[in-house]
Input
Amino acid sequence: MIILIGGEKGGTGKTTLATNLAALRALAGRDVLLVDTDVQGSASYWAQSRDEDEIQPRVACIQKFGTGLQNEVQDLARRYEDVIIDAGGRDSIELRAGLVVAEKAYVPIQASQFDIWTLGRMDDLVASAQGFNPGLKAWVVIGRASTNPSVTETAETREILADFQHLNLAEAVIRDRIAYRKAARDGRGVTEMKPTDAKASNEMHALYEEVFGDVEQVEKQTAGGER
Ligand SMILES: Nc1ncnc2c1ncn2[C@@H]1O[C@H](COP(=O)(O)OP(=O)(O)OP(=O)(O)O)[C@@H](O)[C@H]1O
Ligand SMILES: [Mg+2]
Output
């Protein structure tokens, strides 16, 4: 399955989601490839420091920019079970190419900072990608949300998203926690940190379930049917 993590706004947690999901997918025993389409190369640095520290399971990562991305990813998707694309924080060729090849797209937003203009543009980009890729589904993920329980970001975001036809809201909410920054620095997912931040680990597992849970369900049913 090809998953795109993207969005036009910078610093919303795209690379954090892409690397954490890739680490969890590798831990599930899947052959996963992380595709870093950002010239900043944060996902590649993450994978490199993981390699240097010999953290298992290994997460394969390549950097790829420009117009050839679409064909390259489609080709790689035949060789890897899952491809996770980290697309940089702007309306780039890579973001558009990713939307055309992905089955699922996740757009992290920082609820406290989001602007409706950005979501409107994302909604349009998803709509036009669906013209070529009718199977594409897109979700907004509240990332870096406040850990203060009195802040009602989910309800507010849901209300705003009601105006956009092509964007759904992910159930899982990722909160602003130091564990994410520590894990990023160490080439790990939050779930791999010792000691583990249970809250960070749980929310990332919840997102993982949303992203990949239905795939696992289908595979179990298929395996069951073959027996
Ligand atoms: N949930 C979180 N809690 C705490 N820190 C976070 C969280 N998500 C991201 N960060 C930190 O915020 C910074 C930006 O995150 P990240 O690199 O994932 O964003 P990005 O959307 O990929 O940015 P860019 O647009 O530059 O590619 C990083 O230092 C990261 O460690
Ligand atoms: Mg990034």
Observations:
- The chain has one domain: 2-226.
- Helices lie at 14-27, 42-52, 69-79, 93-101, 116-132, 153-161, 178-186, 198-226.
- The pocket of magnesium ion (ligand 2) is lined by residues 14-15, 38, 42, 86 (CB under 6 Å).
- The beta strands are 2-5, 32-36, 60-63, 82-86, 104-109, 137-145, 168-175.
